[in-house]
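Q: For a teaching session next week I want to show students how multiple molecules come together into a single three-dimensional assembly. I've collected the sequence lines for a complex. Could you give me the predicted C-alpha cells for the whole thing so I can convert them for display?
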Amino acid sequence: MNQLLTGKNILVMGVANDRSIAWAIAQSLAAQGAKLVFTFENERVEERVRKLAETIPGSTLFPCNVTVDEEIDKLAETLKLELGVLHGFVHSIAFAKTEELDGLFVDTSRDGFALAHDISAYSLVAVAKRVYPLMTEGGSIMTMTYLGAERAMKNYNVMGVAKAALEASVRYLAADLGQYGVRVNGISAGPIRTLAAKGIKDFNSILRQVEEKAPLRRTTETAEVGDTAMFLMSHLSRGITGEVIYVDGGYNIVGI
Ligand code: NAD
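A: Of course. Below is the structure for the complete assembly, covering every listed component.
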C-alpha cells in the first residue's frame, strides 16, 4: 500500500510545532505522495512551521488566522491560483482561554464561550465554505475532535461544548457537500501531549486513566491519528461521510 495520494493537493491547517497532530497527519499524507499546503496562525509560529514544511519537498506555506474572514478569503484565492484544484482539507485547530479549562463549566464567560466556538468550531465551516468550490474532482474534509464532545469531562468544559458543535457541523457539512462529491468526517483522538493539551489542567491524570482503562492499555500516538487521517483523505474511505472515527485505543467503549 503506497502512493495512495499521488496527484492530490491537500490543505493542512493547525501545525504549530513537531508535536502537533496536524504535523503527524502531514507526514502520513506526504508518505503517500500528497502535495501539501500548510498554513500558520501568526508570525509567532511562522519560523517553526516554515522549518517543518521545508522538510516536505514540494510543500508550500501561507498565513491564515481563522478568526479573520479576509485571511481565509486570501488563502482560498491563493489556493485557486497556485493549485487550481484542491482534493483535501485537514482542520486541526482549537483554542479556549486557559481560565475556561479549569474549574466549573458553569463559570464560562460569554467571551470565552464565543471565542472557543469561533476558533474551534466555526472555523471548520468558514474554511470549508471557501474551499469546497475548489474540490472539482471530489474531495475530503476532516477535523479533530475529542470525547469531551459527548461526555462531561473534568476541566474540558467549554471546549467540550465547542467540540459538540464541531461534530454537529461535520454532519451538516457532510449533508450539504455530498452532492458535490465532497466528504466530511472527524477523528476523535485519545489525549496526546501537545501544545493545546498543555492548557488543560491535570492532563497527566487523564493520560494515566487512559493507560489503565483503554482496551489497548496505552495512550494514543500522533502517528496513529496521522494514518487514519490519510485513510480519510484517500479513496479507501470513499463510502464514509458525516462520521466521527475514534482513534483512542478503544477508551470510548469502556464503562467507567
Ligand atoms: P496544537 O497546539 O499543536 O494545535 C492547535 C493548532 O490550532 C495550532 O497549530 C494553533 O496555531 C492553531 N490555532 C489556534 N487558534 C488559531 C487561529 N485563530 N487561527 C489559526 N490557527 C489557530 O495541538 P493539537 O493537540 O495538535 O490540536 C489539534 C487539534 O486536535 C485540536 O482541534 C484539538 O482540540 C484536537 N485534539 C487534540 C487532542 C489532544 O489530546 N492533544 C485530542 C483530541 C483532539
